[in-house]
Structures are given as C-alpha cells and as structure tokens.
C-alpha cells in the first residue's frame, strides 16, 4: 500500500463517524476511496497529500465537479486522461489561484489587469499561449496553447494556494462524452481510480450548469474566438464589446 493511504483511511473513518449519508458512506468504505466534505478541517491537507503522491482527485468548481491533478506531473496527467477516457490530443485546462499565476503560466501581456479582473474569477476558461513554466510534455501535446481557469469557488482556489502556487490540470468529473456532474454520486463509477473525492453537495440547481465554463480564445491580441459557449457566454461577449475586442472570423 502507498505510504499516504494510512491518513487517507483515517479520514474515511472520521467521515463515517460524523456523517449520516449511509449510502455514500457504504460506497466510500467499499471502494476504499475517501469522500471528504470540503468543509472538513483536514480537506485541504488531504487534497495536497494526494497531489504530492501523483494521484487524481475529484473536487467541486463553480460550474460542475472536476477531476484534478498536478499539471506538471507527467504520470499524473497520463492517469487523468486514462480515468477520463479522453483522447490525449484533446486539451485539458489548468486551474490557478489568481491573475498573477495566470500570467506566470500563460502569455497574457496583451490582456490588461482590468479586463482579467472583470472576467475572473468565474465560470470562464481563457485560452492563451503557454509559458515555459508549464513543462509537462504530456499536457496538451498537440497545441502550444493552454486554457486557464480561476473558478469562483473557495476550496479549489485555496488548494491552488497551498499547492506551492502551482497549477492544477482540470477537466470535468465524468467519462469522456458523458454528462458532467453536479453531485459526487453521479461519477461514483470513477471513485476507485481516484485518490479522494471532495464533496460540496449539489453545486447547481439547474441542468444549465452542466454546460460547464465558457471557453474563450484570447491568444491573438485584440481578437477573441468562442471555443465553447458554456454558462457565461452573454456576460463574456458583453465585456469583449466593452473592451473593443473583436471576434476572429474563421474562414
């Protein structure tokens, strides 16, 4: 067994003792995967331990539940693709703590702080050229660009902060082509392959939330391209107009 499994199992026991969701407790015990409430005082430390050991975790964002791992760990990225059942040439995003970190991992000199602070944090993925700080050869090998998120959800941003200000690779918590998840039970089939599951209850009240984040390509100065409409399309387009950023037409 891995060295870090002992504290993980202790957290499972504490969870079983203090919570009363019997069906979920039974599954967590049966699959030996910790299911930890995000409000648990040990949650961030557990998540950090999982990342340090190269594991993939599930956690809530401001749109849907996501799968995350250390973005600069080659083995972890390959594992993330395997769990997701995703083509390695289909990009995944990264999640960072703040705009300074976004600039560290993405080439954003042409994007003003005023624009970025109006767009983020929130349900938006900004696609720009990556910097040399993202050194993982298995992270989106078919493109030089990277999608960057700063979710408006404290747990994942706090995790980025305690994770040495490093990026997390992030994708939705479901098998490729399956619906995204608003509750942890919806991706229970993935639990055995995860280091831990961090539970914030149901994180959306409408099916619209399953559309996930809006993805916008801002790699070309003064131009944008909508890659995915997502849940924040209207306010994003409004800001593009306000800042004089024009839509790039694909011929």
UniProtKB/TrEMBL annotation:
Write out the entry's keywords from A to Z.
Cell membrane, Cytoplasm, Membrane, Mitochondrion, Transferase, Transit peptide
Root EC class: transferase
Principal localization? membrane
Q: How does it sit in the membrane?
A: Peripheral membrane protein
Extract one GO molecular function annotation from the record.
L-threonylcarbamoyladenylate synthase
Q: Per its UniProt record, what InterPro entries does this chain match?
A: DHBP_synth_RibB-like_a/b_dom, Sua5-like_dom, TC-AMP_synthase_SUA5
Q: Where in the cell is it found?
A: Cell membrane; Cytoplasm; Mitochondrion
Example GO BP: regulation of translational fidelity
Q: Which GO terms describe its cellular component?
A: mitochondrion; plasma membrane
Domain (YrdC-like) spans 41-232
Give its E.C. classification number.
2.7.7.87
The protein's annotated catalytic reaction(s) are: L-threonine + hydrogencarbonate + ATP = L-threonylcarbamoyladenylate + diphosphate + H2O
Assembly state and interactors?
A: Interacts with RSC1A1.
Q: Which PANTHER family does the record match to this protein?
A: SUA5, THREONYLCARBAMOYL-AMP SYNTHASE
Functional description taken from the UniProt entry: Cytoplasmic and mitochondrial threonylcarbamoyl-AMP synthase required for the formation of a threonylcarbamoyl group on adenosine at position 37 (t(6)A37) in tRNAs that read codons beginning with adenine. Catalyzes the conversion of L-threonine, HCO(3)(-)/CO(2) and ATP to give threonylcarbamoyl-AMP (TC-AMP) as the acyladenylate intermediate, with the release of diphosphate. Participates in t(6)A37 formation in cytoplasmic and mitochondrial tRNAs. May regulate the activity of some transporters.
In the record, the note on similarity to other proteins reads: Belongs to the SUA5 family.
What protein is this chain from? Threonylcarbamoyl-AMP synthase
Taxonomic source organism:
Drosophila yakuba (Fruit fly)
